[in-house]
Amino acid sequence: MKSVEEKAASKAKAAAKKGKKTTEKKKRGRPKGSKNKDKQEVVLSPELLRIQKDLHSFLETTGTLLHIEYVTLDGHFGNYPSAFMVRKKNKHLISKMRYDAALYPAFAGEHSGPGRKPKYGTKIDVYRLDSKYLKETTVKDNWRIDIYQGQFYNKEFAFALNVVIILKTNLVTNTQSHAILFSTDLEQDYDKIIKFYKLRFKIEFNFRDIKQYWGMEDFMNVKETAVTNAINLSFFMVNFNDALIEPFQQKNPDYSILDLKSHYRGCRYASETLKMLPQKPDAILLAEIFQQIARLGAIHPAFQPSASP
Q1: H or E stretch including 72?
Q2: Which of 25, 111, 192, 193 is the Cys-Cys partner for 117 at CB 3.0 to 4.6 Å?
């Protein structure tokens, strides 16, 4: 999430760019005295500088305990400055491009004219890709999903990219949609790029859960240590919840946090009620009681009720 300063800087940059377009009429040809820009070096925005600092801190904390090779960011960071920032840390970026991003293969023809050999070939059409780029085709629920992979250039980047294009075609209406993922690692397999990019959604779900269920929006701490402890506790509860919920989801994949909370609340009710009995039931009946009471408030119960006698 952008800070207030980063939002203000973005608005100021956009306003200045818009004002320049309206006040200046661009002349034909190259401006006198202009020089080629070095795409290898970029000036990072305040947002990227903040992320770079956090990335550096994270890599120092993990040290040699974890071997981290890839950084996955959403489509907001599917640009060259973000890739430059990640590559400066000797890591590879996996992200998503705009749907209308212009992609070019390397020039493969013979160059006979004056000047240096062109860098870019003919711009590709994502809806009419050469079959040599096709890696996988699946059909599910009237949708055909074609996955293409190739090394392409985008003129905003100073280097080639490992691009994966996911093209979905409705077999009934023939409508199509697509997504463009990329990695700066030219040797990475297409399935790994897709898998790693999907992992970022787990991060989104974690933030949703710590806000909705584990107190991220409710704590009133203002001091740095107290805030750090509250945030760490919220994230710990997300991980602890994942460990508790896994066996239930093996029986019912739709089992959720609400179902888990309902389960343990029911177990507590059953436990407190059984304490009032003069004699505890046998183990089999006891397990049946706990299962029946624990599933009463569940939306997606993991255990189905036993048949009535």
Answers
A1: strand 70-72
A2: 111
β 134-140/92-97 pair status: unpaired
Identity at 50, one-letter amino acid code? R
The two three-digit tokens of residue 212, written as one number: 């909705």
Residue where the block lists tokens 């240096």: 116
Residue limits of CATH 3.90.350.10 in the chain:
40-107+118-206
**CATH number of this structure's domain 40-107+118-206:** 3.90.350.10
pLDDT tens-digit map of 123-149: 999 999 999 999 999 999 899 999 999
pLDDT tens, residue by residue, 195-224: 999 988 888 888 888 888 888 888 888 888
CB atoms within 10 A of CB 282: 8
* The model's pTM: 0.70
Distance in angstroms (rounded) separating the CA atoms of residues 306 and 309: 9
User: Smallest Cα–Cα separation from 300: which of 257, 271, 268, 269?
Assistant: 257
SS3 218: coil
Full DSSP string of 95-157: EEE-TT---BPBP-S---SSSSPPSB-PPP-TTS--GGGEEEEEEETTEEEEEEEEEEB-TTS
CA gyration radius for the chain?
A: 27
pLDDT at 306: 44
- For residue 250, the Cα-to-chain-centroid distance in whole angstroms is 24
Which of 247-271 are b and which e, b meaning 16 or more Cβ less than 10 Å from the residue's Cβ? Answer: ebbeeeeebbbebbebbeebeeebe
| Long-range contact pairs involving 286-291 (C-beta distance under 8 Å, separation at least 24) | 290/266
Query: What is the structure's pLDDT at 308?
Result: 38
Contacts of 142 (CB under 8 A, 6+ apart): 170, 171, 172
